[in-house]
């Protein structure tokens, strides 16, 4: 026999045995008997001319050749899984589903309210939400696990396309301990002497350049990776910070102080999809709602809200 006699069922049995560390366990995972599993493995070894499992004491262990073959098999099954994911995505779109993948600064601020509004307008549409890193958002869109990806950076990977972008301005947050709630804004020069809570992400690089361009050094004794965590720290009275307008609006609703910055520093939200995707009505409504919610217009001057 030659390798041309190898069947998908043989490969499936081999993979199950490798993944479950044994022929018996592999058989259970496939719902077949151990003798049937053993026959499939034996047929695969005969077809390939390779010894895949060898006795070691009272157990049977995979050979080096089996591990090498498994690496190739996994690559093949990964491609198959992507095809299955894509097929599942097509089925869900037909049934009515909107899959969203977003970075935390967006997912933890405006998205809950956006999802509520989507559900009100499209009650029969299943909405799937993932909050992930920038890289994972790109992966979710590229593998069609998400219809729309929302980030604060453009995703320039292969067939990904920016379908909308919304520009606004960053905001300074804190509490009345460090910020005057009656002020119309805060100038960057006023950062001097105030404890500063920094970001550990790429946003901090932009912020450092903005501070440097304005000749200001900050006293950063605390840092955090998520804007939501930075807001939490500010609410504890630990200092001031610069965050996106969506986090700032939520911070203000939680009792904190949020002030516009002078000079301004921009913040842009990007909506991304596959270039060959046709946006559904729920996806288009999502983009409209995110545009409205990310504008920063929901930040209310404290002295106005008190009148």
TrEMBL record:
InterPro entries: LysR_HTH_N (IPR000847), LysR_subst-bd (IPR005119), WH-like_DNA-bd_sf (IPR036388), WH_DNA-bd_sf (IPR036390). Keywords: DNA-binding, Transcription, Transcription regulation. Signal peptide: none annotated. One of its GO terms (molecular function) is DNA-binding transcription factor activity. One of its GO terms (biological process) is positive regulation of gene expression. It comes from the Bacteria. Residues 11-63 form the HTH lysR-type domain. PANTHER family: TRANSCRIPTIONAL ACTIVATOR PROTEIN LYSR. Belongs to the LysR transcriptional regulatory family. This is LysR family transcriptional regulator.
């Amino acid at each position: 026999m030659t390798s041309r006699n190898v069947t998908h069922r043989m490969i499936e049995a081999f993979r199950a045995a490798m993944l479950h560390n044994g022929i018996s366990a592999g058989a259970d995972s496939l719902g077949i008997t151990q003798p049937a599993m053993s026959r499939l493995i034996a047929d695969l070894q005969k077809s390939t001319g390779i010894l895949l499992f060898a006795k070691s004491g009272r157990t049977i262990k995979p050979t080096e050749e089996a591990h090498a073959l498994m690496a190739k098999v996994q690559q093949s099954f990964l491609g198959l899984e992507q095809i299955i994911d894509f097929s599942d995505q097509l089925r869900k779109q037909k049934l009515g589903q909107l899959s969203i993948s977003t970075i935390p600064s967006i997912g933890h601020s405006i998205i809950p309210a956006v999802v509520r509004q989507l559900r009100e307008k499209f009650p029969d549409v299943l909405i799937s939400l993932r909050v992930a890193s920038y890289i994972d958002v790109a992966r979710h869109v590229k593998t069609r696990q998400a219809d729309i990806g929302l980030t604060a950076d453009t995703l320039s990977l292969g067939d990904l396309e920016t379908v909308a972008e919304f520009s606004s301005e960053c905001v300074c947050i804190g509490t009345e301990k460090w910020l005057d709630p009656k002020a119309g804004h805060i100038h960057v020069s006023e950062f001097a002497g105030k404890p500063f809570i920094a970001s550990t992400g790429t946003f901090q690089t932009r912020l450092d350049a903005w501070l440097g361009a304005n000749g200001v050094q900050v006293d950063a004794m605390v840092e955090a990776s998520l804007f939501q965590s930075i807001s939490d720290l500010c609410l504890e009275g630990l200092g001031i910070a610069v965050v996106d307008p969506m986090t700032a609006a939520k911070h203000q609703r939680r009792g904190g102080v949020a002030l516009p910055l002078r000079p301004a520093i921009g913040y842009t939200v990007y909506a991304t999809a596959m270039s060959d995707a046709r946006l559904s009505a729920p996806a288009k409504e999502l983009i409209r709602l995110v545009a409205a919610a990310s504008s920063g217009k929901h930040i209310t001057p404290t002295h106005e809200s008190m009148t």
